[in-house]
Amino acid sequence: MRALPTASASGKLQPPDPGAAAHEPRSADGSRLPRPSAQEPEAVAAELKTCIGFTEQDAANLRRLAEPLAPFLPRVVARFYEVILSRAGTARVLERRPGRLERLRASLSDWLGALFSGRYDAAYAQQVARIGQVHVRVGLPQHYMFAGLEVIRQELRQAVREARVRRADAKLQSLYKLLALNAALMLESYTGRLAERVRERERSAVRQRLTQAEHLARIGQLAASLAHEIKNPLAGISGAIQVIRDGLGPGAPHRPILAEILRQINRLDQTVKDLLVYARPVPPRFGNCNLNRVVERVMTVLKREPAMQRVRFEHTTDHRPLPSIEADENQIEQLLMNLLLNAADASEDGGLVVLTTRPTATGVQLEVQDAGQGMDEETGRRAGVPFVRTKSKGTGLGLPICQRIVAAHAGTLTIRSAEGVGTVVRVKLPQRQPLELREGR
Length: 441
Hints:
- The chain is of the alpha+beta class.
- The protein folds into 3 domains: about 5-15 and about 35-210, Globins (Globin-like); about 215-280; about 285-440, 2-Layer Sandwich (Heat Shock Protein 90).
- It has 15 helices and 9 strands.
- It has helices at about 40-50, 55-70, 75-85, 90-95, 100-115, 120-140, 140-160, 170-245, 255-280, 290-300, 305-310, 330-345, 375-380, 400-410, 435-440; strands spanning about 5, 15, 285-290, 310-315, 325, 350-360, 365-370, 410-420, 420-430.
């Protein structure tokens, strides 16, 4: 395929560069590779001049407009900012920093003067492209750029009429071509700079997540090591205390003290278990999970828990059968136990804890509701952060562990809470797991 002729800075067509094809990017097999989508401003300008037919005559027409329109340019600048500043959104952007508006007015005046310079070379294309980049930097929405260009077009047309320019129609056609060229250059640079900024933010976010993941991994390794170091001595201490307690008579004065020591040891043991679960999560082993059976098993276990013995508990359904779901029964059991114990701990003595289970269009929904003190907005946002406790006791890992289990089952967990009202935790689990989770990818 032959190369097309290109336009010079003034719009004059130039013969193709015979060596240009040799410098086009090609793959190893010699086929042509696509060029990058973001082009240099001068390349965009050259292509557009050819497309819209911007010629040397147009450049000459615009040079002849410079003198008659010079007295009108301050009025064009004033009208431009009158329109732009009438919009609350743009006014906030342009007046946010002291001196910004004055600098932008000066830039607009320089750009208007350059419209009639007659020189539309690479330097001119770069100058126009910088306008689009500045709009991204100051945070001006893209559509205002086009609105502003239309205001300028209307004002310059009116100025040409008032100045009684000879052959005004031909000169206005040249002006409209140049304004179209400017709009395309600004759009190209605006979208290119915006895409670059988005990529920078994405890279920054990825780096931040990687740093956080590495930090959490180190904490997890440390926590797991400490938990293992603590667990065995703790079991030895608990066994020794039980031996001492069993050697005392029923009415011995030190039995209550030993019972309290054992309770505190059990708390430490639970903390160690939570640390191990969080630091070294086990991937779910998916199988056919009967949720009703899991609920019955959890309630049988929790009946012996002191926290559940001091509250009232209800399990409600809408009387529709729950479908079996693809899940790890042990992890779903742990999820339910954590949520119900959290709700019981948050409740006053005699308070009501309600577990609601129901089928959904894609799986099942579990909802645990308590009538405790609830959480304010800030506490609610931090409820799932590891080691942040929302109650006086516990490790602050119960809810993060629940979130991890739900995520591993491709589900969602949401928290709705209000101070003085209580908290509702809603979990939705799919009936079938995505293929990548089933295959462990």
